[in-house]
Design goal:
Largest sheet: 7 strands, mixed
CATH architecture: 3-Layer(aba) Sandwich
Number of helices: 7
Distance between the termini: 41 Å
Strand order of the largest sheet: 3-2-1-4-5-9-8
Helix content: 25-40%
Number of strands: 9
CATH class: Alpha Beta
Shape: globular
CATH superfamily: Vaccinia Virus protein VP39
CATH topology: Rossmann fold
Length: 231
């Protein structure tokens, strides 16, 4: 089932590229009313501020860069950004939305990707929850190898709040692994969605040589950040 879901997941995000931003910007099926929307945007701003608070960095690696929502933030603090995604449709929108010459983009399946360089910052948003638990440790070990000694990692992802998803999606099972997702045209896909605990991820990062901390917003997001030890 996991292998099938991973293939379905890539197909889903390729097909969803053109409507992905509706989720983050609370439009259409994701508009949950003024109160929930206001909470969402306030908490998103909290996480973005935490990212900016790490200060200027040199090179940044963004895994699962998507349409550029967070690439736009990274170019404000990094001198260069390498942005990877499995979906060429996402990469095309990323280039359109963040037309900055300091961003280099490449297609990569993050389940088989191996780092071939080290960066001052490794960043990924709303990706780790799509990594099955049995593959989380292995993925994190590859991601942290892409951080130079003394470099940073910053991870953003979702808490299990029903208002985070589309109004016509099934209620989240926080303990589950597989979830059905629909597109605006009604097509349905099965994806992996794991609601990791930020303290758990911070502990995993610590075991991989980072001084790390996990944080939560009130309802919607968590983030974990850390600095890699210098040998």
């Amino acid at each position: 089932m996991t292998a099938d879901a991973l293939h379905s997941q890539i197909a889903y995000y390729r097909a969803r590229a053109g409507e992905y931003d509706e989720w983050f910007y609370r439009r259409g099926r994701y508009d949950r009313g003024p109160d929930d929307n206001a909470a969402w945007f306030a908490e998103a701003a909290e996480v973005m501020q935490a990212l900016h608070n790490i200060g200027p960095v040199g090179s940044a690696l963004e895994l699962a860069c998507g349409t550029g929502i967070w690439t736009r933030e990274l170019v404000q603090i990094a001198t260069s950004v390498t942005a990877l995604d499995a979906a060429p449709e996402m990469l095309a929108l990323n280039a359109q939305n963040v037309p900055d010459p300091r961003v280099t983009r490449a297609q990569a399946d993050l389940f088989t990707w191996e780092p071939d360089a080290q960066f001052d910052l490794v960043f990924f948003s709303f990706w780790l929850s799509h990594v099955p638990r049995e593959r989380c440790g292995e993925f994190l070990s590859r991601a942290v190898r892409a951080a130079r000694p003394g470099g940073r990692i910053f991870i953003v992802d979702s808490l299990a709040d029903a208002a985070s998803s589309a109004a016509n999606h099934a209620t989240h099972d926080p303990a589950g692994t597989f979830h059905e997702r629909k597109l605006n045209d009604g097509r349905a896909f099965t994806i992996v969605k794991v609601f990791y605990d930020p303290a758990e991820i911070a502990s995993s990062l610590a075991a991989l040589g980072f001084a790390a901390e996990g944080h939560r917003t009130a309802r919607f997001f968590w983030w974990a950040t850390g600095i890699k030890a210098v040998a």
